Every structure is written in C-alpha cells, then in structure tokens.
C-alpha cells in the first residue's frame, strides 16, 4: 500500500468569468523512502495540488477527488482535530519563501515549540531541548541563541532551515517540499538540498519535491510527474524521463536547460512545444 495515494484530484476557483480549473484530474502516489518530483513551469498546478492534499486551500476553492488516502486513511472528509493528528505530524510541508511563511512576530524557538506543543504535548523544558536538537540537526550554529531570534534577524538560508526544523519536528512519514530553494542563492540551495536528502534517507520519509528546476529533479528524484496546465502529461522513473521523454512538453522542458542553449537565447517552452507539434503533423 502506498504511503499517499491520490486519484483524479481536481481543484477549481470561482472567478468573475466562471470557474478556473487549476488542477485537472491528477493521479499520484508515493511510497515510504521514495522521492517523487512534481515538475512543471509556474502555473501548472504543482503547489495547488499539494495544498489541496494538506487541506490548506481557502474556502473559495472546490476540491474533488475519487481517492485521497494516507496510509489507507481517507483524508477527504477529515476535519478539525482528526485532520491535525495527520497534517503537521505525519504529513508535513515546507513552503516557498521562508521569510513569508514564518511569523515575523514570534521567535524561531516559539514557532518550533508551537509545533511540538500542538502535536507531541511536551512540557516546556522538553520542548526547548527538542527545539535546540532540531536546530542542530538542520545545521544552524549556536542553536540556543537562535531560539530567541526573529525571522528578520536571520538570513534566508537560516529561515529555510527553521522551516525544515518545524516540518521535521514530529518525524513525519511524508514531507512535501514546495520549491524549497527558490529564494536562496546557489551555494545555499545546494546546502539545503543536501540537508533534505540526508534527513530523508535517515528517517526513510516519503518526499514529494515540487520544483521547476530539472537539475534538482535529476539530483534528488526516484520518480517524476510532469504537469502542464493543471494536468499530468507524463510520469516515469528519473532515468527514463531524462533519456527518453515521451511527451513534447517534457522534451521542451529538457531542451530549455541552460546547458542545451544554442547561441545567446534559450528557446521558450511554448516555442519548443509548438515546433514539436508541427514536426509531428
């Protein structure tokens, strides 16, 4: 049985011109210890689909699915305390833009301890000790001092490490990482990816990596789902995807990598898809 299994997931939002379908009939599954990458350009529905799984979309969103199970538990009807027993504890998420995701009004220590207080019911002294341990695990120096730091007093890389510490606080079985390195410089990106993969292997977590970066996919994933305009257009193991992609859109994504540039300008994904479709006629 898969750790997470989703069948025919769709997400729509009401607009002034009618319903906009951001996710259209997505199927996916991930096993314990597996790294699944969901890749596609901005607006392809990657983040929206995972926010639907987490139950974090606004009431204006309409979410439907034939199945959405975690360890066999149907998540579609879970609300309140029962949902919180799974989401945030067994299933955790690292969000984009750590500086926007952390609360600027509270210290790093308070925000980590809040997770421990909600899900593990630890006492004050135990929460502090665990928070220090978590900051050490994600590579933050002088963790006792950093507990008292506010987000604006830390670098982007440190804030992202705090977000990872919060996500890992309850030893989740499934971690969803939504563009975890987007706002960071190249050196810090490498450090964060290495840290995530190290922790994933140590805890044998299922990991869903949401990204538009094919380099990240090649480095981290076991299996890949490619999304385009809210739909899954291809799914394959990572080696097959890079060596023999089946779909025009996947080939376009790979062709748009910087190392594949010819001349001074990279072709756009739209140009490549159109050219591929024209050649197929």
UniProtKB/TrEMBL annotation:
The UniProt entry lists membrane topology as:
Peripheral membrane protein
**Entry-linked InterPro entries:** AAA+_ATPase (IPR003593), ABC_Ni/Peptide_Import (IPR050388), ABC_transporter-like_ATP-bd (IPR003439), ABC_transporter-like_CS (IPR017871), P-loop_NTPase (IPR027417)
An annotated GO cellular component: plasma membrane
Q: Which positions fall inside the ABC transporter domain?
A: 6-254
Q: Which GO terms describe its molecular function?
A: ATP binding; ATP hydrolysis activity
What family does this belong to? Belongs to the ABC transporter superfamily.
* Record-given protein name: ABC transporter ATP-binding protein
Which species does the entry assign this protein to? Plantimonas leprariae
């Amino acid at each position: 049985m898969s750790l997470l299994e989703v069948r025919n997931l769709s997400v729509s939002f009401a607009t002034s011109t009618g319903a906009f379908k951001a996710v259209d009939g997505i199927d996916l599954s991930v096993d314990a210890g597996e790294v699944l990458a969901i890749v596609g350009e901005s607006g392809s529905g990657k983040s929206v689909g995972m926010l639907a799984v987490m139950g974090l979309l606004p009431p204006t969103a309409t979410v439907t699915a034939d199945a959405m199970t975690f360890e066999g538990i149907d998540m579609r009807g879970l609300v309140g305390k029962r949902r919180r027993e799974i989401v945030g504890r067994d299933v955790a998420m690292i969000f984009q833009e750590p500086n926007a995701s952390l609360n600027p009004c509270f210290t790093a220590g308070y925000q980590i301890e809040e997770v421990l207080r909600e899900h593990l019911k630890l006492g004050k002294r135990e929460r502090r000790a665990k928070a220090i341990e978590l900051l050490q695990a994600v590579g933050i120096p002088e963790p006792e001092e950093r507990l008292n730091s506010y987000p604006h007093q830390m670098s982007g890389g440190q804030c992202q490490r705090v977000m990872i510490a919060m996500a890992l606080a309850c030893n989740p079985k499934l971690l969803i990482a939504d563009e975890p390195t987007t706002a960071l410089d190249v050196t810090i990106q490498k450090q964060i990816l290495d840290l995530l993969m190290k922790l994933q292997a140590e805890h044998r977590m299922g990991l869903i990596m949401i990204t538009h970066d094919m380099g990240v996919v090649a480095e981290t994933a076991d299996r890949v789902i490619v999304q385009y305009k809210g739909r899954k257009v291809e799914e394959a193991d990572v080696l097959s995807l890079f060596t023999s992609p089946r779909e025009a859109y996947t080939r376009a994504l790979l062709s748009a990598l910087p190392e594949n540039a010819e001349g001074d300008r990279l072709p756009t994904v739209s140009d490549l898809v159109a050219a591929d479709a024209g050649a197929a006629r």
